[in-house]
Design a protein that fits this description.
mainly alpha
């Protein structure tokens, strides 16, 4: 089990470092393989997010990939949303939360596939 957990954490960290949503992958895999209950996986994901977020933010600030004015505008709404989320998750049933998460992941996955296919078709139409 620990090997699976470490593998999932490593893969999620790599994906998160690329800014692609490694936390979602961590939650999905760690609950599918019954390493954690959904709320536990969210808690550990948030711990990982702190480490990834701080290191990625420092890296991106050094490389001037972040607009500091936009960053300042986003920080308060993000903090408020996080606090609201903390209170909401306490009120939501574990199974319902898991279902919402899985349907959200299916929706996002479907959206990404469709938008990628549209780009491919558009590129072929413009080139051909």
């Amino acid at each position: 089990m620990w090997i699976m957990f470490i593998t999932i954490a490593l893969i999620s960290g790599i994906i998160a470092g690329m800014g692609v949503g490694g936390g979602s992958i961590f939650i999905l895999l760690s609950t599918i393989f019954n390493i954690f209950q959904h709320k536990e996986a969210q808690g550990y994901n948030l711990i990982m997010f702190i480490v990834v977020g701080i290191s990625a933010t420092i890296f991106n600030l050094k490389n001037k990939n972040i607009d500091k004015d936009l960053f300042k505008k986003l920080i308060i709404p993000v903090c408020l949303g996080s606090i609201l989320g903390i209170f909401l998750v306490k009120k939501i049933d574990e199974n319902f939360l898991r279902q919402i998460f899985y349907y959200f992941m299916l929706f996002i996955g479907g959206y990404e596939i469709i938008s990628s296919l549209k780009k491919i078709v558009t590129a072929k139409t413009n080139n051909g």
